[in-house]
Design a protein that fits this description.
Blueprint lengths: L1 H14 L2 E5 L2 E4 H29 L7 H26 L4 H18 L1 H16 L7 E4 L2 E8 L3 E5 L5 E5 H6 L3 E2 L7 E9 L5 H13 L11 E7 L4 E9 L6 H18 L23 H7 L1
Antiparallel strand pairs: 1-2, 3-4, 3-7, 4-5, 5-6, 8-10, 9-10
Helix pairs in contact: 2-3, 7-8
Length: 299
Amino acid sequence: MQDFKNYLIGLKEIFDFPLINLGKTQLTAWSILLFVVLLVLLFYVTAKLKTWIVERLLAKSSLDIGLRHTFAAMSRYILIAIGFTVILQTAGIDLSALAIVIGSLSIGIGLGLQNITNNFVSGLILLFERPIKVGDLIEIGQLRGEVTRIAARATTIITNDNIAVIVPNSELTSSAVINWSYPSPRVRLNFPIGVAYGSDPDTVRKVLIEIAENHEGVLKEPKPDVLFSEFADSSLNLVLRVWTITYVSKPGVLRSELNYEIEKVFRRNGIEIPFPQRDVYVRGGSLHVLKPDESKESE
């Protein structure tokens, strides 16, 4: 029993041994260990709390998913700030001395962490102004996908191929971003269609509108319509315009399904889809067409 007590006393002496002098505070191995453990617990608990707020507390509220994530993220940042201050005091770290150290390192931190700071501030802008929110379908450059997470440093976008792309927040605030879901998830899609000369445009228009109205992914209001865009070289060009919500993230699928039905109905109604044609006129001289036997003899 005495050996165990001696072991505890020796262990306490090791943990109480001062390692760093910070102002009037002596940082021991115990205070540093306590600080690290509490800090890890703080980030773990606040992360779980953020998930609980989104999925449980606000799940049945009238707030949209983007606003729920914004509220949860800001709540977590506030709790981390408060918890960090409490942890410093619990670990016995002098806040005034820590402020002096942070001040002396601020220049170096500012130069070395410019990108991280820029992305963090951009993340706060996204959370407060909400030009982009979780659940939105956005397009930036060649990237197109759904926003699934807005974190302090970067935003996660899932493409239609189920590929997660991590985009720094600064790019979303400094680049041109197309938000297909802002301010409404309802989007109009335009599908150009060409028919051969000699086709009745009124009949084609009626057929196209009927096909669009019968598709479950096309909204009944606003109604689909057809524009007669131009007289092209080989075709009469029209544009089928439809409104949709369910196919915003996959317009190519809607176009494919409509094209299948258009081709079938056009064939049934004798409406011809044109192909490029060229007329060749020969002026003067003669044009000799080789027969198969003559072409073999020339070889």
